[in-house]
Amino acid sequence: MPGFFILFFAYMTTQYRNIGKIVSVFGLKGELIIHHHLGKKTSLKDLEVIFLEEKKDEFLPYFLESTKIKNENEVFVKLEGLNTKEDGHKFIQKEVWLAEKDFLRYAGKSAPISLVGYHVIHDGHDLGEILEVIEQAHQVLCRIEIKKKEVLIPVNEDTLVKTDSKNKKLHLSLPDGLLDVYL
Predict the structure, then answer these.
(1) What string of pLDDT tens digits covers the 183 residues of the chain?
(2) Which domains does the chain have, with CATH numbers?
(3) How far apart are CA 8 and CA 2, in angstroms?
(4) Contacts from 60-64 at CB under 8 Å and sequence distance 24+?
(5) CB 64 within 8 A of CB 47
(6) Is this structure's pTM higher than 0.90?
(7) Pairing of strands 169-172, 119-122
(8) Residue 181, SS3?
(9) 10 Å Cβ neighbour count for 146?
């Protein structure tokens, strides 16, 4: 038990990244299915812990017993202490988070979710840091804040000018009037 507390407190000062959510329970032993946005097929092999946000900015660790690939965007996980289908039901629709170091290990370099932390540049101006990435069928929306207001910026073949991974900048050419809608 002392190992748990050391690990728990080590993660208290960690930054977390959202990777998706739990979408279903599988089987009779409480296995869960995580739908992720990591941008590549993964089994999350050797991952020890995932985090679920119980309250705003309060992440509780859940330790993994096993993981297995389901498909390109989904993975089966078995959490310690979940032993029945009924145990797993309370986790459906919960957002899943990884510690920053684990996120960097499992996320695909070109996955849209990797844009979190980049700055949006439009007409040479830094509009702000990408706080969240929302993937849709034909485009990606990046959530930023300008003057304490939420702004959704579309990233698609029409708006993307270039990605500067070294400096974590996303250069875009936004449609006229888009920012006026939010501000």
Answers:
(1) 444 444 444 444 468 888 999 999 998 888 999 999 898 888 999 999 999 887 777 888 999 999 999 998 999 999 999 899 998 898 999 999 999 899 888 888 778 888 888 999 999 999 999 988 888 777 789 999 999 999 999 998 889 999 998 999 999 999 999 888 888
(2) 2-106 (2.40.30.60), 112-182 (2.30.30.240)
(3) 10
(4) 61/7, 61/8, 61/11
(5) yes
(6) no
(7) parallel
(8) helix
(9) 14
